[in-house]
Amino acid sequence: MKLTLEQVEHIAELARLELTAEEKERYRQQLSAILEYAARLQSLDTSGIPPTSSVLPPRSVLREDEPRPGLPIEAVLRNAPQVEQDQFRVPPVLE
Amino acid sequence: MENHLTSLSVTQALQGLRSGDFSSRELTQAYLTRIEQLEGQVRAFITLTPERALSEADAADARYAAARRDPMQPLPPLLGLPMAIKDLLCLEGVRCTCGSRILENFVPPFTATSVQRLLDAGIVVLGKTNTDEFAMGSSTETSAYGQTRNPWNLAHVPGGSSGGSAAAVAAGMAPAATGTDTGGSVRQPAAYCGVTGIKPTYGRVSRYGLVAYGSSLDTVGAFARSAQDVALLFGCMAGADLLDATTLDVPVPDLTLSDAPDLHGLRVGVPQEYFIPGMQPTVEAAVRQAIAMLESLGATVQSVSLPHTEYALPVYYLIAPAEASANLARYDGVRYGPRQPADALWEMFRQTRGQGFGSEVKRRIMLGTYALSAGYYDAYYGQAQKVRTLIKRDFERAFEQVDVLATPVAPSTAFRLGEHSDDPLAMYLEDVFTLPTNLAGVPGLAFPVGFDPAGLPIGMQLMGPHFREDVLFRMAHAYQQVTDWHRRQPSL
User: Fold this and answer.
1) What pLDDT, in 10s, does the model give residues B57-95?
2) Is B44 left (phi over 0), alpha (psi -120 to 50) or beta?
3) Per residue in B305-360, pLDDT tens?
4) Which residues of chain B are within 8 Å of residue A11 when distances are taken between CB atoms?
5) Would you put residue B228 in left (φ > 0), alpha (ψ -120 to 50) or beta?
6) Which domains does chain B have, with CATH numbers?
7) Among residues B24, B100, B114, B161, which one is catalytic?
8) pLDDT for the residue B425
9) In contact, A82 and B468? CB cutoff 8 Å
10) Phi/psi at B84 (nearest 5 deg)?
11) What does the alpha-carbon distance between residue A3 and residue B371 come to, in Å, rounded to a whole number?
């Protein structure tokens, strides 16, 4: 499985990662090698085998829906790079 | 006195504290002094918390004093014991970096349940230990905060991702430490550093406050020198938690370990797939010798097969990055971490993430994003989840025949710093014997069973059925009653 530069750029865009030209080429080679290694999974017949998404027995985990205090606003905002009126401030979403 | 204090086991240190041979302040100060002496060489810590440690130690000493006046006062099991915490577990008010620049100034407003339970049991926190960035690595080399070194040979890696914790315990800079294990991150550094470490059953110890990597695989464990010490820590951390819906309310079995090294009635399985061509011959020899020792203590030994073992590596390196790509979406420069300036929101995301993450983390986010993307999902992620079922069934069948599986932890001893940095696939192969445990959710215990000719420790892994950590501790404790590998300490 050889990835193209365009594929690498598409994945980086999906993942919202700005990459340098050097990084793109390195990841193209390394991800191609890893995917080639992973291709051995295709040789296994898994028809009729259910997927495992959790090793736990399927069960329902419910608790009483009782209101309880959350973290104070100032504690939550303390780590934020930019805050305004008790909210997280971000650059414009739309031009 | 100080050197004596830092070579005590957890059990011995707690006995000394209870009988008043020394105070928690003396014990804590002895560790802080040793850290000051050795940290320049070993670099096990990202953040040290000496003032906090001494004030917690004084509080512990006050409780011991009160209990001496009034013996009815209950004393928590780890009261006054210094401990190091992996910097992937949140402790309120202390910076938690996860080894990443993207969290370099993050101070969590809450404490992980596993850490809180240890605090409730009385521990004194020495500091936060180094880790591969977001636990993605097998050598602690992907940390943005410097390279931890193996105390047995400073030119070698300590393993990873919990390399700081394992190195701290091996170097006598902490009697015990927490770790996390998503694909071997407790067991492999335990083996490389010659200490004992537990990866509990998935769902046994709460993941609340553990910064997520691969949520269906992540576990919280612990390191100390002996199985007895690790069992004590595990017992304090284990149990259901309302804040983690994947914890199960399965009672923790009695972890009192008999000092009679008798393993009669226990069946040990040796999976042939874990003795592969190309592995270091001294590793295989030491592990086979340790298995023979278990047999001489009364266990029966038989060969078993886990036929899908060879697929664990590709399954893991599709599932874990897929889960990571979703978990790490939260690092976007909005709520915490450094933000790169940009005129528009999406550009801010791209710049912040591109510059905040290191190269291994970006590689895994890319890999996981690809495995989950339209057109490739079924072939990669979907197929990996089905093969995971086959791997899980291998374990279920094996545990119909035996109580415990015994294998090497890794195919070789600790490699040199930088040896695998340019070849991610070679680095991933270091995890080949530890990944299946996480995919199946079963517990694993690593402990030292010898040294290679270069003087580097060799580790053995015991794996058991879900929620049977007690059998692993029992077996390793029996082994450690009749051997002294776990008592050896590096000369630093």
Assistant:
1) 999 999 999 999 998 888 999 999 999 999 999 999 999
2) alpha
3) 999 999 999 999 999 999 999 999 999 999 999 999 999 999 999 999 999 999 99
4) 366, 369-370, 373
5) alpha
6) 2-273+284-305+400-487 (3.90.1300.10)
7) B161
8) 81
9) no
10) -105, 145
11) 13
Q: Which of B248, B311, B313 sits opposite A44 (nearest CB)?
A: B311
How far does the CA of residue B385 sit from the closest CA of chain A (Å)?
5
How do residues A20-74 score in pLDDT, each as one tens digit? 999 999 999 999 999 999 999 999 999 999 999 999 887 888 888 999 999 999 9
Residue with tokens 């069946």: B267
A72 alpha carbon, distance to own chain's centre: 28
> What mean pLDDT comes out for the span B96-110?
97
Write out the CATH class of domain A5-43. Answer: mainly alpha
Checking if the pLDDT of B256 tops 90, the result is no
How many Å apart are CA B408 and CA B429, to the nearest integer? 14
Categorize the per-residue pLDDT at B2 as very low, low, confident or very high, splitting at 50, 70 and 90.
Answer: low
- The ipTM is 0.96
Chain A contact probe: residue of B202, B366, B376 with most A CBs at under 10 A: B366
Q: B376, B370 in Cβ contact below 8 A?
A: yes
Half-sphere exposure of B348 (CA within 13 A, CB side): 21
Q: What is the pLDDT of residues B292-315, one digit of tens each?
A: 999 999 999 999 999 999 999 999
From the list A15, A38, A49, which residue is nearest B366 (CB)? A15
Among chain B residues, the shortest Cα distance to A14 is held by: B369
Q: How far is CA B24 from CA A17, B81, B83, B124, B278, in A?
A: 48, 7, 12, 9, 48
Return d(Cα B321, Cα A11) in angstroms, integer: 13
What is residue A89's predicted lDDT score, i.e. its pLDDT? 95
How far off is chain B from A64, nearest CA to CA, in Å? 11
- Angstrom distances, CA of residue B115 to CA of A50, B31, B158, B189, B480: 36, 20, 23, 20, 27
